[in-house]
Amino acid sequence: MQVPAPFDYARASTVDDAIGLLERLGPEARLVAGGHSLLPMMKLRLATPEHLVDINPLESELGYIREADGEIRIGALARHRDILESELLAKHFPMIREAEELIADPPVRNRGTIGGALCQADPSEDLSAVCAALGAVAVIRGRDGERTVEMPEFHQGPYETAVGDAEMLVEVRIPIREHAGSAYEKVKRRTGDWATAAAGTALWLDGSDVAAAGIALSAVNPSNVRSTRAEEALVGRPPTEEAFAEAAAIAAEDCEPIGDLRGPADYKRHLARELTHRALRRAAERALAS
Amino acid sequence: MKINLTVNGEPASAEAEPRTLLVHFLRDSLGLRGTHWGCDTTNCGACVVLVDGEPVKSCTMLAAMADGHEVLTVEGLEREGQLDPVQQGFIEEHGLQCGFCTPGMMLTARALLDSNPNPSEDEIRVAISGQICRCTGYKNIIASIRWAAEHSEEVTA
Amino acid sequence: MAATTETPTGFGRMKRKEDPRFVRGQGNYVDDVSLPGMLHGAALRSPLAHARIVSVDTSAALQHPKVRAVITGKDLEAQGLAWMPTLSADTQAVLATDKVRFQGQEVAFVIADDHYAARDALELIDVEYEELPVLVDPRKALDPDAPVIRDDKEGQDSNHIFDWEAGDQAETERVFEDADVVVVTQEIPFQRVHPCPLETCGAVADYNAVTGKLRLWCTTQAPHAHRTLYALVAGLPEHKIQVIAPDIGGGFGNKVPIYPGYVCAVVGSIVTGKPVKWMEDRTENLTSTGFARDYLMRGRIAADRDGRIRGLRVDVLADHGAFNATAQPSKYPAGFFHIFTGSYDLEAAYCTVKGVYTNKAPGGVAYRCSFRVTEAAYLVERMVDLLADELEIDPVELRMKNFIRSDQFPYTTKTGWTYDSGDYHAAMNEAVRIAGYEELRREQAERRQRGECMGIGVSFFTETVGAGPRKDMDIAGLGMADGAELRVHPTGKAVLRISVKTQGQGHETTFAQIVAEELGIPPDDVEVVHGDTDQTPFGLGTYGSRSTPVSGAAAAIVARKVRDKARLIASAALEFSPDDLEWENCCLIDKGATEKGQTIQELALASHGALELPDGVEGHLDAEAVYNPPNLTYPYGAYICVVDVDPGTGEVKLRRFISVDDCGVRINPMVVEGQIHGGLAEGVGIALMQHVAFDEQGNCLSGSFMDYLVPSSMEVPDWELGETVTPSPHHPLGAKGVGESSNVGSPPAIVNAVVDALEPFGVRHVDMPVTPARVWEAMQKGTTEPPQ
């Protein structure tokens, strides 16, 4: 088997401890939680950090999923499995369970964390699209305290986030709003594969019209951004097939898929449209029923 | 560094580099060769063990990260000369051919049955979906796990 | 279906004897072998597909405190070991000397104290390359300006390897020129795939300079053939070489060739004086070891309007990679591809196969292919479906109309095969019955009205397996006859030593069942010894579904020899003439008075005891045999696949898969079913998701399980099995072998189903792998681009 290059190892006992270690060890130090993004890269020697800071002990501090102040707050160390099984999340944001069922596989979900997924910022990563569509906010802690960053600012490019040196993502907050519905659609070649294309949509209704919409695609853009033009096309009108079709077409127009072994660019663009449409349809059904 | 953990109910301890993967720690440092490996990219699941009761791909966990935790390997399924029902199920239903994926499959089955004693075929398919078998076409693995679910009281040596 | 609770005396469902160790994690695979002082090897591999080696600097690696040795091509060259023969009378570089010829080719070999250090040391070796033009498209291999890959071979001035043909060209052309026939032509590529057993390849070499003995634990499906080849190539005396294939974690043909890593481990052990272990990683397995298929086929089928198939012609361009390392009988460079006439009674048939080199990994014959039968079956079953589509005849009906009839067996095909036995109509009818075919077609019609894409695919295959008669079948000059030895101990327990090597097929159980069936010694009392060349008779190993047809026959013959000897001993013990004794219920009794009899256990004791034996009868109860099969065997099957295609995304969902197999007599139906299940899952992978792909620079794009996709439990349906039993008339047990059947029959069934589902879109053909993207592409254009 391919194995990592040598590195030094430290274990953090608290968040502040972890940040202190990052500060002390410098830019050649990486945090490792679930390790299912970082360790595979290290085994292939595509990543060779000199120091690893193990933050798994922080699960007791940051492994929560709870409701507070009109938000759901998910600690960065919440594992994919916890997020999948959370009834609280399933009740408010059905998109999340739908996405988690299609992320990786069960043993990987037992270890991988939302913090790791978001900070890896792979353009095909699903939770990034989910959080973007739901208007989530990232809470980042550094030596000087905490700051919040909206998802569009959090994801700055492929594998790049707003988390700076000696900083750590500690929480993700998702606002709860009424008359909400959400859904996630994903096409992949096989269980555990990255998406060929995926779409996460959320709708909030005001009476019979769409008051707000969140649409974020995965695997068809350099990073997981919202399809804001598509969202705007839905606001202020009833959630009809026509509206979905229009929004889906715009989302497809605006994305930038790259052809690869999963398929040519035009196929992915087609999927962007098809999946956005399907996800909107289901999100609307849920919003109307709520 | 010294790694201290509990393996199959007993304390286990050995020196390892920080980069030593749990799968290699189990196989080479502790001599427990029932845990296998089959890829480099965390896909195949031949290396699955239970960490604190949950299936984990031990090729993607540092031994250091398992320090202080409980690990169950295939060697820990049999207790006091009695096979676990999952082991007996795999024999009864021809759930293995070459045997290479089998330790991981049985451990995942054990964890599944501990939380869901009567899983449906679909639930079993999902539970083992992170683990590759090249020999059985999965049908008999599913049957083996169903056998274990139906014979949880029956174990034979 | 479960094993029964009673152990049958012979054939039947029984739990496997080998399972107790596997379920306890006590299998002994090569990576479990650990010897005192053992070192670890790792191979440095070329990142480039075609390049001259300018220099190899190992000085930094040699300074690593844990490195014991570094071997380069130059080092091997000095010993005459830089090149080794392949199983196809070509040569392959062990470590590159002049050039590298495919990405992933071995360039140097490091030996260190532990595996992690060996990996670290690889990064310390500095190789300077001078890039050369790369050839990845076999269609360009014979262009005048194509780079010559094998310039190491004297007289080789192109990338041509061989031309081969079978059948009657003139007769076939005459049929095609007949004014009344319908001719359908189609390019049908079979993409490059890889068998990827879950355990990768590896070896532990332990050379003892004092005794001169080399022990080599190795993931090999053919330990004796390997031993002989090492003796021939390395000049080591063969009686001093012991090849031990312990438990193997899957083979599927991937573990037949000798790989450079094995040779380097042997050299490393000689050089360091210590055991050396080499286990490849998954990327190495996928990018350098024996791939499968890569046949560009062009099929032409001619038929009368009423559906009577008249002739079939196939022209094949075969991509063998950088070295011709295919493993098949030496007289057949295209393996058994000339069984492409399939299960049909044709007037004429002809094929050509042209083999070429490209800058890709060497190989071609692997992955349960029965030596290219998979390619042949795919070709003919797609052509028959294309014809059905053209003539607007139901695909089952068209096949039934053209099957070889049961009264025509033994049937000699237009390309020289003599099929032993078959009742194709019965198998097809059984599949139709299990599937509820008529009902499925009705359902399809309804769903089509609603715009839903349901597809029903049919395939019928005949394989030729069990190689084979030694005058026709040899590999590297070693005739494909296998030995067996049976020894019955005084207390009536037996040891059967066989030449074949299971990688999961259950030989420890099924071969014991053969002895039990013949001699009445319970299977639990028969120990099957296999895999160690010091402990077992010579044979050519397990692949091409040959274990039961060849070694199984040898086991039956040797058990009968023991029975014949037992009869003579019984005649002495019972004081009857041997002709007055008959074998009944595992006992020799006199035909008249049934009170006097001797069980085999009593006879075993008597044969070792003080009983006076007749003249010419030696003591003990042992026998040996070498079985030279009179013919190959011809298992067959009828498969039906039901799919639902999502027209919005192109995703294919396998709803049902029905497989009716006829492999003759079944020794252990539970084991047979398991073999079929496994091959079906492999077929799903091949049909829907597998492709070893390259870019134009020869970079392998499928070097890990992230991109070389293997079906999980989510991608396969529940398998519905049926059977018919038509014994082989020439096999001692009537058995035909079944290990590869389901990999042969399933890809065409699946592709036929998808094409059927897409018929409303005017799609006639889709190339494998039928990914969602390709389905969608076909829906837009009516066809797909072939895989690169």
How would you describe this structure to a colleague?
The complex is a heterotrimer of chains A (290), B (157) and C (788). Helices cover 39% and strands 26% of the residues of chain A. Chain A has 290 residues and is of the alpha+beta class. Chain B is α+β, with helices and mostly antiparallel strands and 157 residues long. In chain B, α3 (85-92) crosses α6 and α4 (102-115) crosses α6 (139-150). The mean pLDDT of chain C is 95. The interface between B and C is large, with 61 and 57 residues.
Key terms for this structure?
heterotrimer; A: 290 residues; alpha+beta; Uridine Diphospho-n-acetylenolpyruvylglucosamine Reductase, domain 2; Uridine Diphospho-n-acetylenolpyruvylglucosamine Reductase, domain 3; Enolase-like, domain 1; five-stranded antiparallel sheet; three-stranded parallel sheet; 13 helices; 26% strand; globular; C: 788 residues; seven-stranded mixed sheet; six-stranded mixed sheet; 18 helices
In a few lines, what is going on in this structure?
The complex is a heterotrimer of chains A (290), B (157) and C (788). Chain B folds into two domains: 2-76, Beta-grasp domain (Ubiquitin-like (UB roll), Roll); 85-152, [2Fe-2S]-binding domain (DNA polymerase, domain 1, Orthogonal Bundle), CATH 1.10.150.120. Chain B contains six helices and five strands; from the N terminus they run ββαββαβαααα.
Show unreliable segments of chain A: none
| Beta content of chain C | 15-25%
* Through-space gap between termini of chain A: 51 Å
Kindly state the number of beta strands of chain C: 33
**From the helix content, strand content and strand pairing of chain C, which structural class follows?**
alpha+beta
Query: How many DSSP H or I helices of chain C?
Result: 18
Which helices and strands, and how do they pair?
The complex is a heterotrimer of chains A (290), B (157) and C (788).
Chain A: E1 8-11, H1 15-25, E2 29-32, H2 38-43, E3 51-54, H3 59-62, E4 65-68, E5 71-75, H4 80-85, H5 87-92, H6 94-101, H7 106-111, H8 114-120, H9 126-133, E6 137-142, E7 145-150, H10 151-154, E8 155-157, E9 160-161, E10 167-175, E11 180-187, E12 197-206, E13 209-218, H11 228-234, H12 241-254, H13 265-289
Parallel strand pairs in A: 1-3, 2-3
Antiparallel strand pairs in A: 4-5, 5-10, 6-7, 6-10, 8-9, 11-12, 12-13
Helix pairs in contact in A: 11-12, 12-13
Chain B: E1 2-7, E2 10-15, H1 22-29, E3 48-51, E4 54-57, H2 63-66, E5 70-72, H3 85-92, H4 102-115, H5 121-127, H6 139-150
Parallel strand pairs in B: 1-5
Antiparallel strand pairs in B: 1-2, 3-4, 3-5
Chain C: H1 19-22, E1 39-45, E2 51-57, H2 59-62, E3 67-72, H3 73-78, E4 83-85, E5 91-93, E6 99-100, E7 106-112, H4 115-122, E8 126-131, E9 160-167, H5 169-177, E10 182-193, E11 202-208, E12 213-218, H6 223-234, E13 241-244, H7 260-272, E14 276-279, H8 282-288, E15 291-303, E16 309-319, E17 348-356, E18 363-364, H9 373-391, H10 395-402, E19 411-412, E20 418-419, H11 424-435, H12 437-449, E21 453-462, E22 474-475, E23 478-479, E24 482-488, E25 494-498, H13 507-519, E26 526-529, H14 547-574, E27 581-584, E28 587-590, E29 597-599, H15 600-608, E30 621-627, E31 636-645, E32 652-662, H16 669-688, E33 719-723, H17 741-757, H18 772-781
Parallel strand pairs in C: 1-14, 12-13, 15-18, 16-17, 25-26, 32-33
Antiparallel strand pairs in C: 1-7, 2-6, 2-8, 3-7, 4-5, 9-17, 10-15, 11-12, 11-14, 15-16, 19-20, 21-31, 22-23, 24-25, 24-30, 27-28, 28-29, 31-32
Helix pairs in contact in C: 9-17, 13-14, 14-15, 16-17
